[in-house]
Amino acid sequence: MSIAGIGIDAGSTTCKLVAVDAAGEIVTSVLEPAHPRIESQVETMLEGVRSRTGATNGVPCVATGYGRKLVVSADRRVTEITCHARGVFRGLQRSATLIDIGGQDSKVIRIGDDGRPIDFVMNDKCAAGTGRFLEHTAGRLGVEIGALGDRALAGLAEEQITSTCTVFAESEIISLIARGAEVDAILRGLHRSLVGRIAAMVRSIGWTPPLILSGGVALNDGVRVMIGEALGETVTVPDAPQLTGAYGAALLALEIE
Questions:
Q1: pLDDT band at 13 (very low <50, low <70, confident <90, very high)
Q2: Sheet of 76-77: strands edge to edge?
Q3: Residue among 90, 108, 105 at smallest CA distance from 255
Q4: DSSP label at 22?
Q5: Which domain holds residue 38?
Q6: Please, are residues 191 and 152 in contact by the beta-carbon 8 Å criterion?
Q7: In DSSP terms, which residues pair with 227 in a beta bridge?
Q8: What is the CA radius of gyration of the chain?
Q9: Strands 5-10, 76-77: pairing kind
C-alpha cells in the first residue's frame, strides 16, 4: 500500500504520526515522547516513515496538537477538536460523543452525523482533570503508571480527594499517607476525583451515545469504568486511543488537492 496522507499530532507529552493510503486505511504509525525541539523530532519521524515506506516528500501532511504551528512540513494545521472528531467518526459513521484525556488537557466533543464537531468543552487551565494529575500523584505514591487503573479498581475502600488543584491534592495525599491510608484506596479516590471533573464536562454539553474515550488516559481501565459508572453509559475505547487525533489529521490530508 502506498501512502496518500500523513497526520501529525504534536501533543504536550507525546508526538504521534499516522500515515494512511488513499482509502484512509492506516499504513504505519509512530508514537514517541514529545521532545523539547518538536520541529526536529517531527522531521526525523517523517524521514523514518519515508525510508520504510518509500513515500515521497509530496505526500500531503496535516498537523494538529499543541505544537502544530511548529511542524514546518505541514500543508495545513487543524485544531485538535476537528481532527479528533474526524478520527473517531471514521470507524463509527454516526454521531457520538468523544472524551479525550491527554497529558495536559481534556476535551469532550459532540460529533454530528457528518463527522464534524457540533459542540465541545475543554479543560486546559488545570491539570486536575488530565493525565498529568494521575502521573504526578502516581509518582508520589510510588506506583507505576500502567498499574494505576487496576489498583484503583482492585480495592473496595476509597479515600475522598476533595481538592480541585493538583498541588492541594498532593497535600491531601501526603496527609492520608501519614494517617496510614491504603494506597489502593487513595488511588480509587484520585480516579473518582478526575472522573468527577470529566463527567461534569460531559453533562455541561450533553451527550449522544456512544461514549468514546481516547488519549493516553484511555489505556487506564479505572478511568474508563468509573466514567461509565458516573454517566450510566458504556464507554468504548478505540484500538489505538492515542492515535485518534493524528489519524483524523491524516484523513484530512487526503482532502488536500
A1: confident
A2: 26-33, 14-20, 5-10, 61-64, 76-77
A3: 90
A4: T
A5: 5-84+243-253
A6: yes
A7: none
A8: 19
A9: unpaired
Question: Bridge-partner residues for 121, per DSSP?
Answer: 108
Sheet holding 211-214, edge to edge: 117-123, 106-111, 96-101, 211-214, 235-236
What pLDDT is stored for residue 128 in this prediction? 58
pLDDT in tens, 85-131: 999 999 999 999 999 998 778 899 999 999 999 999 998 556 556 77
Residue type, 50: R
Tell me, yes or no, whether 20 lies in a domain: yes
Q: Which residue has the cell 499504513?
A: 27
Residue 24 has pLDDT above 90, yes or no: yes
State the cell numbers at 87.
Answer: 478520527
Q: How many domains does the structure of the chain reveal? A: 1
Closest CA to 16 of 73, 67, 82: 67
DSSP class per residue in 105-171: -EEEEEE-TTSSEEEEEEE-S-GGGSHHHHHHHHHHHT--GGGHHHHHHH-S-------SSHHHHHH
Q: What is the pLDDT of residue 30?
A: 97
Whether 38 is in a domain gets the answer: yes
pLDDT score at 164 = 63
26 part of a folded domain? yes
